[in-house]
Design brief:
2 domains; Fructose-1,6-Bisphosphatase, Chain A, domain 1; alpha+beta; 7-stranded mixed sheet; 8 helices
Length: 273
């Protein structure tokens, strides 16, 4: 694994939040919000400014790393082709939950992952409102760090019976018939939801408050950090066909659960794609 200054990277996310994200929260003008692919896919002036700041900090700390940001890819989709083969790469979502952020909802985060030779080796999720980080380095567990220096190790919750499970199910990117079938199957669990913010969904899951999380659309800035954090907290994660989720994957779905047996049960009974 490369020699990383995780604290420096974590502080870059905090700095971007303090200087570019929070000062604009609930103060965006009409010209500060634009639609990308559809009405629920937005970009704001805060996304763009935060990404530029984080990029500058990353390039100073890791000059040999390829930098990929969500907004940079929106401008140049060919950047995605570099993920599988890069020796070292940093992937950033400057504001995960932009729809919430633009609507003034206090549920958004800043995410960064480090990929070395096709493998995610570190992940950071910063909560601008809580002013704390959830961080994992491969093989070192998952931790929440407070600004006072205190830290808490995370552990996923053991799974109860299927009819008592609570989890995340993002069904919006399935076709209508498959979405209808999965929504019907979800009647067999106790409760499911979507925060429209993977950053907080992964933090909540890794901290032991949920039993599963399911996603269909796989953008690396949305899922690499959270998947590594969840795995380091003891979760089992795989694509719908059972194969490992890797940084270059953009499809195939993703299901995370407390353990392999729970994953298999959810895949068979609920997420029958």
């Amino acid at each position: 694994m490369p020699d990383l200054d995780i604290a420096l990277l974590a502080n870059a996310l905090q700095e971007a939040a303090a200087l570019e994200i929070m000062p604009r929260f609930r103060k965006l003008g009409e010209d500060d919000v634009r639609m990308k692919s559809e009405a629920i896919d937005l970009v704001t002036a805060a996304d763009e400014a935060a990404e530029l700041l984080i990029r500058a900090r990353v390039e100073a700390a890791l000059p040999d790393a390829v930098f990929i940001g969500e907004e940079a890819v929106a401008a140049d989709p060919s950047l995605m082709d570099k993920i599988a083969d890069a020796e070292l790469m940093v992937i950033v979502d400057p504001i995960d939950g932009t729809f919430n952020y633009a609507a003034g909802l206090p549920l958004f985060g800043v995410m960064l992952s480090v990929v070395a030779k096709g493998e995610t080796v570190a992940g950071i999720i910063f909560d601008p409102l809580g002013n704390d980080w959830t961080i994992a380095e491969k093989g070192s567990g998952a931790w929440t760090y407070q600004t006072d220096g205190s830290q808490t190790r995370l552990q996923v919750a053991p799974a109860p019976a299927l009819d008592q499970m609570i989890g995340i199910a993002n069904v919006g990117f399935f076709d209508k018939e498959l979405r209808r079938r999965i929504l019907s199957n979800l009647a067999d669990v106790r409760m499911f939801t979507s925060y429209r913010c993977a950053a907080h969904e992964y933090r909540t899951f890794a901290a032991g408050h949920l039993h599963f999380a399911m996603y269909n659309k796989l953008m690396p800035w949305d899922h690499l950090a959270g998947t590594l954090i969840s795995q380091e907290a003891g979760a089992y994660a795989a694509r719908f066909d059972g194969s490992p989720y890797l940084p270059h994957h953009a499809d195939g779905g993703l299901l995370l659960a407390s353990d392999p047996d729970t994953w298999a049960l959810l895949r068979e009974k609920v997420f029958t794609v």
